[in-house]
User: What shape does this take?
Amino acid sequence: MSIGVDSMPTESRRIGVLTSGGDAPGMNAAIRSVVRVACGRGWTVLGFRRGLTGLIEGDFVELAPRAVANILQHGGTMLKTARSEAFRTETGRERARATLEASGVSGLVAIGGDGTFRGVHELARIWGGSIVGVPATIDNDVFGSDETIGFDTALNTALDAIDRIRDTASSHERIFIVEVMGRHSGFIALAVGTAGGAEEIFVPEAVTDLNQCCRRLVEANRRGKAMSILVVAEGEHEGDAFAIAEKVKVRTGFETRVTVLGHIQRGGPPTARDRILATKLGAYAVDMIAEGKSDVMVGEVRGDLIATPLEESGLRKKPLDPFLLKLIPILAR
Ligand code: F6P
Assistant: This one.
């Protein structure tokens, strides 16, 4: 990684930055890093508001280094975000291209998840500037980076909730079904299930046999274990947390309760780990633009900063850790 602040600026340049898709804690830290590293090179940075919608509507503001002061510690995104339906159309993308040309930017940093990357990959086909993606989503379901910005914070928020639920679950000797976010992915469920000592997890990537799970709950009860926590990722095959709770109640006869953690997982101050990852990836994205790279996403894999083609990061699936998947029911004794 060659941070531009060490070298004298050689050219004046304008680049854009935006945040798109579901917000993730650490997006602000990434914006700050992009702005300050690019300005260190003598470049001008424009912040597009509400993600790809801002590109289409030409809604942007110039971000000087002081414009991003005191945002590092805040969740959410100062640039706002959205899921743009219009950008899925050719007309929407043509309008975005026209905005980029009219505003004179030659590079764009898109901070978001796989949906954002599929969108800007299409834009890269019709616009000649450099487009670099920075992975930020609590779901962690982006190929090309071991972790995405926001995942660690969401995981710790969910863990805090599960620790609290365990107190009441154990006092009342109940089975709690806790639903965590992750529309098509079980990264939060697997990680929080492991860290929070869940008895079972239900994720879209693997099939959990509910009958077997109910048998294990009954056996555990006979051995004197009267409370359990089952973690369910949204989008699980067996249905949502309420559907699973009902089935467990009918098949075991035990009292069940449901907690849906929902959007609580998306907010709050980013953890140190997310702030550091966001800072590194934001800076590296600017480096990629300086090197003339385009249609790529930056990521960190086994400690190394790497660039992956946007097409690949938007399409390929990152697998869950099979070792942890097997361990969860074994640990529940
Ligand atoms: O992509 C992040 C995420 O939080 C998913 O886990 C969740 O399914 C989805 O966004 C919810 O999206 P929205 O806030 O638009 O309802």
